[in-house]
């Protein structure tokens, strides 16, 4: 009987030591792998994306949503003058005029100012705009009688950057895509973009017909 009791006590001690060893091993494994997140077992590695996708600028997104609320727009441009335009003629001057285009459509062609690198046009015009996300392109040319007119630079008017209903003065730098480092002068404008309703759009269409 005494031998039986001794054997039972020995078996219980061995079982207790084995549980402690298993618990220590489990804790060590958890410490090596780092803390687990809720719902993620410690032995499953968590995925960390190598490149994070940044959300588009919230301000720009809100502005685009605001612009899409309107059926169309009216754009008023006051073409004031040119400054320090390039000389294309042998006499050291040019005969500049400006073309305004959007989506391949001619919006306006200015008059020609002869023999002047700082021309004053002082012209105003208003055109309907259906898609404000299409920029207005300005191209300046030197008029040549009977010959092909010489290119004097171009620039773009970003309509999405305009504050609706507010008149703004702009100075746009002219560039040649084939000679991006060449300074070709500036165009000075005064522009206003007004939002219009569907009724306004239909009225404009009726007046055209």
TrEMBL record:
Q: In terms of domain of life, where is this protein from?
A: Eukaryota
Q: Which residues form a coiled coil?
A: none
Cited SUPFAM superfamilies:
C2 domain (Calcium/lipid-binding domain, CaLB)
Q: Which residues cross the membrane?
A: none
One of this protein's Pfam families, by short name?
A: C2
Q: Where is the composition biased (Polar residues)?
A: 30-40
Q: Which Gene3D superfamilies match?
A: C2 domain (2.60.40.150)
Q: Does the keyword Ribonucleoprotein apply?
A: no
- Domain C2 as annotated: residue spans: 56-172
Against PROSITE patterns, the record matches this protein to: C2
Write down the InterPro entries for this protein, in alphabetical order: C2_dom (IPR000008), C2_domain_sf (IPR035892)
Q: Which UniProt keywords apply?
A: Calcium, Metal-binding
Ranges where the record places region Disordered: 24-47
Q: Which PANTHER family match?
A: C2 DOMAIN-CONTAINING PROTEIN, MULTIPLE C2 AND TRANSMEMBRANE DOMAIN-CONTAINING PROTEIN
What name appears for this protein in its UniProt entry?
C2 domain-containing protein
């Amino acid at each position: 009987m005494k031998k039986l009791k001794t054997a039972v006590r020995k078996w219980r001690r061995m079982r207790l030591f084995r549980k402690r060893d298993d618990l220590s091993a489990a804790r060590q494994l958890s410490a090596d792998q780092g803390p687990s997140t809720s719902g993620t077992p410690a032995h499953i590695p968590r995925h960390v994306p190598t490149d994070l996708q940044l959300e588009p600028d919230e301000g720009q997104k809100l502005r685009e949503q605001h612009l899409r609320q309107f059926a169309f727009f009216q754009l008023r441009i006051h073409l004031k003058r040119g400054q320090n335009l390039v000389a294309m003629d042998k006499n050291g001057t040019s005969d500049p005029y400006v073309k305004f285009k959007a989506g391949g459509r001619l919006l306006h062609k200015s008059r020609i100012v002869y023999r002047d690198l700082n021309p004053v046009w002082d012209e105003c015009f208003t055109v309907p705009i259906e898609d404000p996300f299409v920029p207005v392109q300005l191209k300046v040319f030197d008029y040549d009688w009977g010959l092909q007119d010489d290119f004097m630079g171009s620039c773009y008017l970003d309509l999405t950057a305009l504050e609706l209903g507010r008149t703004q003065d702009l100075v746009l730098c002219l560039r040649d895509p084939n000679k991006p480092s060449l300074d070709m002068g500036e165009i000075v404008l005064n522009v206003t973009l007004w939002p219009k309703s569907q009724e306004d759009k239909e009225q404009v269409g009726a007046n055209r017909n």
